[in-house]
Amino acid sequence: MTIAVIGHGYVGLVTAAVFADLGNTVWVVGRTKEKIERLKVGIVPFFEPGLEELVKRNLHAGRMKFTLDYKEAVKPSEVVIISVGTPSKTTGEADLTQVMAAATSIAKALVGYKVVVTKSTVPPGTNKKVADILNTHKPAGASFAIASVPEFLREGTAIDDTLHPDRIVVGTSSDRAQELLGELHKPIDGKIVWCNVETAELIKYASNSMLSTKISFANAIAFLSEKVGADVEKVLEGVGLDKRIGRSFLYPGVGYGGSCFPKDVKALIAIAEDYGYNFTLLKSVDNVNEEAKKNFVSKIVQHFGGKLKGKTIAILGLSFKPNTDDMREAPSIGIITELIKYGVSITAYDPVSMEKAKTVLPKGVQLKGSAYEAANGAHAVAVVTEWNEFRQLDLVRLAKHMKNLVLFDGRNIYDPVTVKRLGFMYYGVGRS
Ligand SMILES: NC(=O)c1ccc[n+]([C@@H]2O[C@H](COP(=O)([O-])OP(=O)(O)OC[C@H]3O[C@@H](n4cnc5c(N)ncnc54)[C@H](O)[C@@H]3O)[C@@H](O)[C@H]2O)c1
């Protein structure tokens, strides 16, 4: 099958590369000449494990093609997939500008019959608006069906998630679209949930909100654990072994971040408000997430008795989670910004996100080449992202570089007993 994918971000490029690897011809449409030229020689604009190799392989096999020209991509394609960004507006609502611009450009390029799929995360009703735009701008004689196929991949494991998803959600009322999308997804081993467009749109927000709820619940239990003298890790182990609950996503930390959970929780609150429902549960999920970041900073402030001026703190991990360079809504940004307000000097290290971090972190943060370099002369080390490399740190070596042996473990990756035995003062999350 020949398909077109609009947008070459974390979702678009992975989707395109996986479908190309499954034998399809995939046109990828971008809007930045420089990025498209680099993609044409196999240079991927972000870090995702295995993606550059996959793109290069399919590029050389002639199955992946990159263009700025919608007509070139849409004309030969049976399915056109919109996978552009849907960031938050300041009100929390999803900003659909990119989706609507892509839909307008697709409409003008339509010839014959196409299935137009929205993969971007969009509020219920958006696919219908896409259909209106297609109808308004399409040339006479062109026809189309719409479908909502939301994406569930996780950055860091995106290729595997796309090939082996827990489920594929397809919302459409068109038999022809159902047939084509059934064929396209045949080699992918996830159960297909067929539904109407609005259901598919809502499933995506409900899923991300549920996962965010589990994280905020774990954080709320962590706050309480510290107060009652419990160990949150044991509490959640005890809770998570109940098969009805499970342990997945029941991990406390410094709050969820990234390009999806914060924006999708806020968007679902806004969607509910639009329909007259006050989604208090999700408002609390969002509030607890903010508290998680604040509590981490408070622990650091309290340790130093509020006297942080002239202190150096080494931040380990900057991306919003391990195995990605994505800095969107990364908790590290807020934590570092707050600490700087107290007059703290920040050194920082992340295995892959340093280039992106430079563009979003406050001025003055000193980026270092390793965890040990970042810890050199530091009054404390704070682990913000749980990269495996930090789990394997040689803490004896780290200690030799530090001025004071204080460790703030924002992800509970260390065993407190071992760390304390090495002479560190240890602060975890929910470990009294
Ligand atoms: N990143 C994730 O982990 C993830 C997972 C599931 C769903 N999603 C959803 O998928 C969508 C895309 O997310 P992402 O992380 O890939 O975003 P992204 O910002 O990484 O990528 C968006 C891409 O769209 C391109 N673009 C924007 N407007 C365009 C236009 N008119 N024509 C051509 N290209 C255009 C941008 O240049 C960029 O390459 C969002 O709705 C997001 O919520 C993301």
UniProtKB/TrEMBL annotation:
Domain called UDP-glucose/GDP-mannose dehydrogenase C-terminal: residue spans: 314-416
The protein's enzyme class: oxidoreductase
Pfam family membership, one: UDPG_MGDP_dh
Single GO MF annotation: NAD binding
Superkingdom of this protein's organism: Bacteria
Keywords in alphabetical order: NAD, Oxidoreductase
Residues the record marks as active site: C260 (nucleophile)
NAD as UniProt keyword: yes
SUPFAM superfamilies named among the record's database cross-references: 6-phosphogluconate dehydrogenase C-terminal domain-like (SSF48179), NAD(P)-binding Rossmann-fold domains (SSF51735), UDP-glucose/GDP-mannose dehydrogenase C-terminal domain (SSF52413)
Pathway named in the protein's UniProt entry: Nucleotide-sugar biosynthesis; UDP-alpha-D-glucuronate biosynthesis; UDP-alpha-D-glucuronate from UDP-alpha-D-glucose: step 1/1
Residues reported to bind substrate: F152, L153, R154, E155, K204, F249, L250, Y251, P252, G253, G257, K321
Catalytic activity: UDP-alpha-D-glucose + 2 NAD(+) + H2O = UDP-alpha-D-glucuronate + 2 NADH + 3 H(+)
Positions that bind NAD(+): K35, T86, T121, E155, K263, R328
Keyword NAD: yes
Gene Ontology annotations of biological process type: polysaccharide biosynthetic process; UDP-glucuronate biosynthetic process
UniProt EC number: 1.1.1.22
Record InterPro entries: 6-PGluconate_DH-like_C_sf (IPR008927), NAD(P)-bd_dom_sf (IPR036291), UDP-Glc/GDP-Man (IPR017476), UDP-Glc/GDP-Man_DH_C (IPR014027), UDP-Glc/GDP-Man_DH_C_sf (IPR036220), UDP-Glc/GDP-Man_DH_dimer (IPR014026), UDP-Glc/GDP-Man_DH_N (IPR001732), UDPglc_DH_bac (IPR028357)
UniProt family annotation: Belongs to the UDP-glucose/GDP-mannose dehydrogenase family.
PANTHER family, per the entry: UDP-GLUCOSE 6-DEHYDROGENASE TUAD
UniProt protein name: UDP-glucose 6-dehydrogenase
